[in-house]
């Protein structure tokens, strides 16, 4: 196993407790959304290594402070700054600009076909594509919410963000 694979395996093992505490692991006996096949639906494509790296890196930023225009965890992150930082550091991909700018990149993905590592976009200020987060699976995403919060996970299906979801986009082949 290469050093980077070994490091990723160690990070994944140590992240299990964090994932469980954040409520993103499925309950016992429940199939994860990424592998579940509903009647009449096709199976979701496999998830590549870079997408897993994006999810793990994003989860590592939970509890990081918010700052409008923030582009690094030391100073604080806003939603698009968090996405840009995560993709640059974990997947060596340059995604830059506002949430609306990011929404013009990538490939549209139906909500039922979202895979971990895809971006999810919201209309949060009566303005299309005004907020972005990183989908982590099981109908949840990581995001930097606002000046009254820190980086955290939320549900796509319940709560305030559910009614404001616009679309998902994939940045992986």
What does this entry show, briefly?
Strands 3-8-4-5-6-7 form a 6-stranded antiparallel beta sheet. A two-stranded antiparallel ribbon has the order 1-2. The chain is an alpha+beta fold and 173 residues long. Helix content is 28%, strand content 18%.
Remind me, CATH topology?
A: endopeptidase fold (from Nostoc punctiforme)
| DSSP helical segment count | 4
User: Fraction of residues in helices?
Assistant: 25-40%
Number of domains: 1
Shape assignment = globular
Find the count of extended strands (DSSP E, 2+ residues): 8
Mean pLDDT: 80
Order of helices and strands: HHEEHHEEEEEE
CATH class: Alpha Beta
Q: What topology, given as strand order, has the largest sheet?
A: 3-8-4-5-6-7
Structure description:
The chain is built from 4 helices and 8 strands, in the order ααββααββββββ. It has 173 residues and is an alpha+beta fold. It has a single domain (48-170), classed as endopeptidase fold (from Nostoc punctiforme) (Alpha-Beta Complex), CATH 3.90.1720. The chain has a 6-stranded antiparallel sheet. Strand 6 and strand 7 (152-155) form a beta hairpin. The longest helix has 20 residues, at 3-22. The chain is globular and about 35 Å long. The two termini are 25 Å apart. The relative contact order is 0.17. Residues 1-45 have low confidence and may be disordered.
């Amino acid at each position: 196993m290469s050093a980077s694979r070994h490091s990723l395996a160690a990070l994944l093992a140590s992240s299990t407790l964090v994932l469980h505490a954040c409520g993103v692991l499925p309950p016992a006996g429940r199939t994860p959304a990424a592998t579940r096949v509903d009647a009449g639906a096709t199976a979701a494509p496999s998830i590549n290594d870079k997408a897993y790296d994006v999810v793990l890196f994003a989860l590592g930023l939970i509890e990081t402070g918010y700052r409008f225009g923030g582009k690094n965890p030391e100073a604080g992150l806003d939603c698009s700054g968090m996405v840009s930082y995560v993709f640059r550091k974990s997947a060596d991909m340059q995604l830059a600009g506002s949430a609306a700018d990011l929404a013009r990149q990538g490939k549209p993905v139906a909500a039922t076909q979202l895979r971990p590592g895809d971006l999810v976009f919201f209309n949060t200020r009566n303005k299309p594509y005004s907020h972005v987060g990183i989908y982590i699976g099981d109908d949840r995403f990581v995001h930097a919410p606002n000046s009254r919060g820190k980086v955290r996970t939320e549900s796509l299906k319940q709560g305030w963000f559910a009614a404001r979801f616009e679309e998902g986009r994939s940045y992986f082949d």
